[in-house]
Design a protein that fits this description.
Length: 181
């Protein structure tokens, strides 16, 4: 496939081949003639460098233990949900390997985490909406016109105004004061 141009060889593999046949990369590129080299005499099984070694861990995949951990985590309603990547780190295995063995459990853990993140976002937005309404009331009570710029100065996180619901709460608060139709 290399000769036909269908696949490009990896540089590290080429270097390993050149090392095995005792030819320098420069000699090969300059197309210097190869002396008769007996590959069988010089061949040593290639050893992989740490950077090219397999990504699989040397740990034994304890199927039953991992299943128990995953099921236990799903049953524990008190534990804070975590993403599957974090779960895999805690178990000491690659997420893909765990997913291959337990796709339903992994989906359930991911769904639980997604639901948790959505609930956090919802609470954060609700609190921001309440804060915006209070700030608008406070600014109005001080006799000032409640502009978005003025309100954002009093917010803990002014960037929350990018959220549609917070902007809606801002306009609702101004409407309740008679500033908007």
């Amino acid at each position: 496939m290399w000769q036909q141009g269908q696949v490009l060889p990896q540089f590290e593999v080429l270097l390993n081949i050149f090392h095995q046949i005792q030819v320098s990369l420069v000699d090969f590129i300059e197309r210097k003639p190869l002396e008769s080299v007996s590959l069988r005499d010089n061949f040593v099984s290639p050893t992989l460098s740490p950077s090219s070694s397999s990504k699989c861990s040397d740990k034994v995949f304890n199927h039953d233990s991992i299943r128990q951990h995953l099921e236990g985590f799903l049953k524990d309603k008190i534990a804070t949900p975590i993403p599957m990547t974090e779960m895999a780190k805690r178990l000491g295995h690659n997420k893909r390997v765990i997913y291959r063995h337990f796709p339903e459990l992994c989906r359930s853990i991911s769904a639980r985490y997604l639901k948790y993140k959505q609930e956090l976002r919802s609470r954060r937005i609700t609190m921001a909406c309440e804060q915006v309404q209070q700030i608008v009331q406070q600014i109005y009570a001080e006799g000032k016109y409640p502009t978005e710029a003025l309100v954002s100065q009093f917010l803990e996180k002014p960037g929350i105004f990018r959220d549609r619901e917070v902007r809606r709460a801002f306009h609702q608060a101004r409407r309740s004061l008679g500033f908007e139709p």
